[in-house]
From TrEMBL:
Role description: Responsible for the coupling of flagellin expression to flagellar assembly by preventing expression of the flagellin genes when a component of the middle class of proteins is defective. It negatively regulates flagellar genes by inhibiting the activity of FliA by directly binding to FliA.
GO biological process, one term: negative regulation of DNA-templated transcription
Repressor listed as a keyword: yes
Protein name: Negative regulator of flagellin synthesis
The Anti-sigma-28 factor FlgM C-terminal domain, residue ranges: 46-88
Keywords: Bacterial flagellum biogenesis, Repressor, Transcription, Transcription regulation
Pfam families in the record: FlgM
Domain of life: Bacteria
Transmembrane regions listed in the UniProt entry: none
Length: 104
């Protein structure tokens, strides 16, 4: 192959229709108005929820006070074997659940 035998290459610009490009550039771009998802006047009232939550007696205050007193006096007994067993059980459940999810 010699340099003299190469074909002439036309540029891309020469093949484009200049009139079409000029017409597209003159067209205005579309503008979209967006509405906010939440109106500025939206009010949220948590008073009922707060009063409902504070009126429930889910916490056994007598037990809490006994534990506080045991901590203060240094007489609180902690069953470390039970804590360790529960930690291991929860960890095993978590790992089993993770393996089930990955296997799907």
């Amino acid at each position: 192959m010699s340099i003299d035998s190469t074909k002439s290459v036309s540029t891309i610009a020469a093949t484009l229709n200049c009139d079409l490009i000029n017409a597209q550039q003159k067209q205005p771009t579309a503008k979209v108005k967006s509405k906010p998802c939440i109106e500025p006047s939206t009010n949220v009232s948590l008073n009922q929820t707060v009063s409902l939550l504070s009126s429930t007696n889910d916490i056994n205050m007598e037990k809490v006070n006994k534990i506080k007193h045991a901590i203060e006096t240094g007489s609180l007994l902690v069953n470390t074997d039970k804590i360790a067993d529960e930690l291991i059980r929860h960890t095993m459940e978590y790992l089993t659940m993770e393996m089930d999810i990955e296997g799907e």
